[in-house]
Amino acid sequence: MYAVISSSSSSSIAAAPINSFSPISRRRKAATAISCSQTQTASFKSATATDYKNTTVLPLAGSLYEILRVERTASLNEIKTAYRSLAKMHHPDATGSSSDGRDFIEIRNAYTTLSDPMARAMYDMSLGAGVRWVRSPVYPSRRWETDQCW
Amino acid sequence: MAEPAYTVASDSETTGEEKSSPAFPEIAIGIDIGTSQCSVAIWNGSQVELLKNTRNQKLMRSYVTFKDEVPSGGVSNQLSHEHEMLTGAAIFNMKRLIGRVDTDPVVHASKSLPFLVQTLDIGVRPFIAALVNNVWRSTTPEEVLAIFLVELRVMAEVQLKRPIRNVVLSIPVSFSRFQLTRIERACAMAGLHVLRLMPEPTAVALLYAQQQQQMVHDNMGSGSEKIALIFNMGAGYCDVAVTVTGGGVSQIKSLAGSAIGGEDLLQNMMRHLLPNWEKLFSSRGINEINSMGLLRVATQDAIHKLSSQDTVQIDVDLGNGSRICKVVNRQEFEEVNNKIFEKCGSLIIQCLNDAKVEADDLTDVIVVGGCSYIPKIRNLVKSICKRELYKGMNPLEAAVCGAALEGAVASGISDPFGSLDLLTIQATPLGIGIQANGNRFVPIVPRNTTMPARKELIFTTVNDNQTDVLIIVYEGDAEKAEENHLLGYFKIMGIPPAPKGVPEIKVCMDIDASNVLRVLAGVMLPGSQQPVVPIMEVRMPTVDDGHGWCAEALHRTYGATLDLVTVQQKI
To answer: Could you confirm whether the keyword Acetylation appears in this record (chain B) (predicted)?
Structure first.
């Protein structure tokens, strides 16, 4: 009675999510306005999954660094500080936030990768190789980090 | 002017309102309903203040007596003597009973309480009753809690001179989402709107975050990140959390909890003093209840004394001709409760492991709750965490203070001195998933996932031309599905005939900002870009009673005909 698509394994718990499905209601709300004083206001929207595919130019548009508004060379401390201050703005519980949580999930995912030295190195490599990094499911420790559904 | 929008409240009892309505900027109060004691606190504009009842108590006993026509609780009622609570007319420990079915071991342990807890052991709600004029008058944990909450509400309204509607409640980590709906139900019965339900140690973590933030402001500490372990053990529950704090943001890294507490220590000790006490009192006549009450009070008293002295003399006349006269030492108490203490230790270790934190990484170790006075508990936490304990908190008030802080933050109140510049980033205390691969539990949102969250997994059919699949949603960490808490179930129908393993059934779980769980399920066939049947979106939990029974009935009716299995990612 067990049926497994991939012939390789019957170890079931380890199934992984896939990254695409038809777009039905990916974002219930438009991207919330970003009140940050910095310049890259557009980065938020471009960070969502659909836009990864649709945006074509700008090598770093929507990169995890842009989501966290830090330099490519940022230290771990800078990344943590950036994450916390962004969380205070975009977490749905934060005072004055009108977010439904999608923005925070993006920030959280970016932080999860960039705060892990191994994951960050892998990500940097993928950027360097000119590959658009779309939270690859192959990547072992990030298996659960996707917010995409439909 | 736009026409006013009329909306229907959700049918499920969980409140559907998202955050506080800005039209009514009242500050939510924080309530800590303990198994044994409860308290209320509020942000008074500059700090958190605990409210006192008319007898000047900040901590009130959590019980309701059904002695008179109008039931009265521990907020307003004055007990002439401790024994009065144990005559059969008072219901207490409702936090251990709420939202549990009659097969639950915690419910069975509650049968030794001096009121009626009856079970039929078929997975339905237990029967609970208070003895009033020699009549067992039935009630429910929700009703008892609601009576109590009304008293708390009245007390707060009188003191604050305004109506109270919004509350932040602290709850045990191990509570399932079904239990949360029961708490919300009790609040609704009391006319209260739940703004947040905070796992107790996360409320303590918020208080800690504020204290650390304050130190930075006062230039007493560095602004760097601090990692704290919080151990909270009361009468009913033991909870552990690891939090990473910096800049007023408390990120919960891991949570662990279990329904063990002072009540278990007490029952083990009663069993030690009078080995066949459960049998002696099983008939539940008035005399037995009275004897049981006397033993309970004497044992509780002895345990309290053993926190400060090495031996204690117990001398109690049970009124039925038997008398217990015994000297008990601290070592005996610790041996009798060895299993409980071991479990406490394992929760701490699990929490550290889940947070990927070593004991050496901890900045502070915070022990709170009624059991924090027990030397064995303090030593246990100290030895595992290799640290002295944090001293900046009142162990009995920390949780309610944290809840009150969250109440102010969640109500959108800001403080000119930045004292409310705080944020808690919560994590899921239990995994949420579905039954698949036979009777296995397959988590889709693993334990300790940062919220809000959205996760998904792909499943497929087990039979050729299987047109229907049954999605049974559970919450917990056990490998076998039925050992977890059932949250609900639904069927996806109309899958086009295909060989087994071909249809992709995508199950997505979404926990939004209000901690509302939605389960979405859709079917894809290879080559199609659109789902082949409309996607199902179900708000969980959908079960209201008799869950154990339902799961068994589903299994008996459908067997494996509507089963699912997980799919390996195609690389």
So the answer is: no
Judged by a CB distance cut-off of 8 A, whether residue A4 touches chain B is yes
Q: Does one domain contain both B187 and B104?
A: yes
User: Is B535 contained in some domain?
Assistant: yes
Residue B186 lies in a domain: yes
Q: Which residue ranges form the domains of chain A, and what is each CATH number?
A: 1-150 (1.10.287.110)
Q: CA nearest B453: which of A145, A63, A70?
A: A145
Nearest CB among A17, A21, A150 relative to B457 is that of A17
Give a yes or no: residue B555 inside a domain: yes
A with B: how many residue pairs have Cβ under 8 Å apart? 144
Amino acid letter at B39? Answer: S
Element (H, E) at B472: strand B469-476
Tell me how close the Cα of A59 comes to any Cα of chain B, in angstroms. Answer: 25
Asked whether residue B164 falls in the same domain as residue B301, the answer is no
Q: Which residues contact B23 (CB under 8 A, 6 or more apart)?
A: none
Nearest CA in chain B to A98: B19
Residues 6+ apart with CB under 8 A from B79: B61, B85
B425 contacts in chain A (CB < 8 Å): 87, 91
User: Helix, strand or coil for residue B162?
Assistant: coil
Measure the CA–CA gap between B8 and B407, rounded to whole angstroms.
26
CB-based contact A3 B461, cutoff 8 Å: yes
Question: How far is the alpha carbon of B502 from chain A, nearest alpha carbon, in Å?
Answer: 7
Question: Using CA atoms in the order B74, B77, B78, B79, what is the torsion angle rounded to 10 degrees?
Answer: -60
**Contact residues on chain B for A103, CB-CB shorter than 8 A:** none
Give pTM, 2 decimals: 0.83
Residue A8: what residue type?
A: S
Same domain, B445 and B522: yes
Task: For A122-141, write each residue's pLDDT tens digit.
Answer: 898 888 765 454 444 333 33
Does the pLDDT value for residue B218 go beyond 80? no
Do both B270 and B178 map to the same domain? no
SS3 (DSSP) at A54: helix
How far is A146 from chain B, CA to nearest CA, in Å?
Answer: 6
Contact (CB<8Å) B508/A149: yes
CA B173 to chain CA centroid, Å, is 5
Residue after which a domain boundary falls, among B176, B195, B214 = B195
The answer to whether residue A105 neighbours chain B at the CB level (below 8 Å) is yes
Domain stops at, among B195, B230, B247: B195
Chain B nearest CA to A57, separation (Å): 26
Q: How confident is the model at residue B67 (pLDDT cuts 50, 70, 90)?
A: confident
User: Do B38 and B179 fall within a single domain?
Assistant: yes
Say yes or no to pLDDT of B49 above 90: yes
B567/A5 CB distance under 8 A: yes
Asked if A99 is an interface residue toward chain B (Cβ–Cβ < 8 A), one would say yes
Nearest-Cα residue of chain A relative to residue B444: A144
Chain B nearest-CA distance from A63, in A, is 21
- Within a domain: B443: yes
Are B314 and B446 found together in one domain? no
| pLDDT above 60 (res B450) | yes
Residue of A nearest to B568 (CA): A15
Boundaries of domain holding B33? 29-195
Q: How far apart are CA B423 and CA B415, in angstroms?
A: 14
Q: Report how far residue B386's alpha carbon sits from residue B264's, in angstroms, rounded to the nearest whole number.
A: 27
Residues in chain B: 571
- CATH code where residue B294 lies: 3.90.640.10
Per residue of chain A (150 residues), what is the pLDDT tens digit? 343 343 333 333 333 333 333 333 333 333 333 333 333 333 333 333 333 333 333 333 478 898 899 988 888 888 998 999 899 888 888 766 666 778 888 899 899 999 888 999 989 888 876 545 444 433 333 333 333 333
